[in-house]
Amino acid sequence: MDNHGEDDAAGTDIKEMLGLQLSEFEMLQSMFPNDGEFCLDDQTAIGSIQTFLNGKLKYEYLHSRLGFTVHISPGNCKTTIELVCQLPHEYPAVPPVVFTRAPNMNRNSHSQLNEALHEYIIGLDRGELCLYSVIEWLQENLEKFETDESHEKEGDVLSKLEKMKLEEDSVFTRLWIYSHHIYSKFKRRDIIDWASELKLTGFSLPGKPGVVCVEGYSRSVDDYWHRLRRLNWKKLVVKEKEGQDIGDGNIEKYRKFEGFEEKVFDVRGGKGREYHMDLGKLYEFLDLHDCGHIFQMYFGVEGKSNS
C-alpha cells in the first residue's frame, strides 16, 4: 500500500478544514441526540480546536483531533454496529479514518463490510464532507452483510457464534509490520490505543523506518491490521506473519512481549522532521525477546549488538 495522504495535504488550509469538521460534527450530533448514540472520544477536543480557530493557540500545540463513535441500528436489520470516526486535521482534503465494530457479526461478514465501506469512501470526492453519506451508506447496505444466521432460531445462532468464536480464538498470530516512517503523533497514539483495545501485545518503533509488532488472537490481529492500513502511509507492508494453533491453551505462554509499548532507542536527528533510532539497540531488544532473526528480514543485514 502506497498512500501519500499526509504529504499530499501539506498545502491544505488546516483552519478551513477544521472549521468544516466542526460544522459536520454539530450536524451529526443533532442527528443522533439519544443517549449512547453519539459518543465523543475526547471531550476537550472541541474546545482546543475552537481555540486554535480563534487564533489563541498555535497549531504546533494543537494535540487534539475530532474522534467519535456513532451507534447505528437500521430498522430492517438485526445487527447493530458502531461506526468509529477519527478525523485527520486535513480532512476533508484527505479521507477520514473510519472502521466499524460489530461484535455480533461473524468474522467474514464483518471483514466484507469494512472492505466495501473502504471502497465506497475512496470513491468519494476529496474536499467534500462525507460522514453523513457514510452513515447513510451503512444504513442502506448493512442488511446485505447479514448472514443467514440472523434468520435462524436464537439457540442455533448462539451455538454457531460460540463455535465460530472458539475456532477463531484458537489461533495465535504475530504480525511484523514495516513502515517507511512513523512520525505523526496521531498515528503513534492509534498504534498504541488500538493494541490496548484489542488486547494485543508487542511494540512500536517510531521514526524512519517504522516498525510495529503485534501478537494475540488471530481475529484481533487481523482487525488491527485492517485499521492500521486504512491510515495514510507512504509505505506499509507486512514483513512476516507467524501463526500457531494453540487450541484451548493459555495464550500468555505464546507471547514474547508483555503489554504493548512504544520503544525509543537513542534518537538521532535527520533532515526536517526526520529522525532515526539506534538500530543496534533495536537488535538487542529483539534478541532479548527471542526475535533477533527478524532484524535481517527488516533491514537485509544481520543484527549486531552495540556492546
Strand content: 15-25%
The coarse silhouette is globular
List low-confidence stretches.
Answer: 1-8, 149-155
The largest sheet is: 5 strands, mixed
**What is the second-level CATH architecture of the largest domain?**
Roll
Instruction: State the CATH topology of the largest domain.
Output: Ubiquitin Conjugating Enzyme
Domain count: 2
Distance between the termini: 37 Å
Count, helices: 10
Helical amount: 25-40%
Order of helices and strands: HHEHEEEHHHEHEEHEEEEHH
Q: Overall pLDDT, averaged?
A: 86
**What is the fourth-level CATH superfamily of the largest domain?**
Ubiquitin Conjugating Enzyme
Number of beta-strand segments: 11
Radius of gyration: 21 Å
> In order across it, which strands form the biggest sheet?
8-5-7-6-9
User: What structural class is derived from the secondary structure elements?
Assistant: alpha+beta
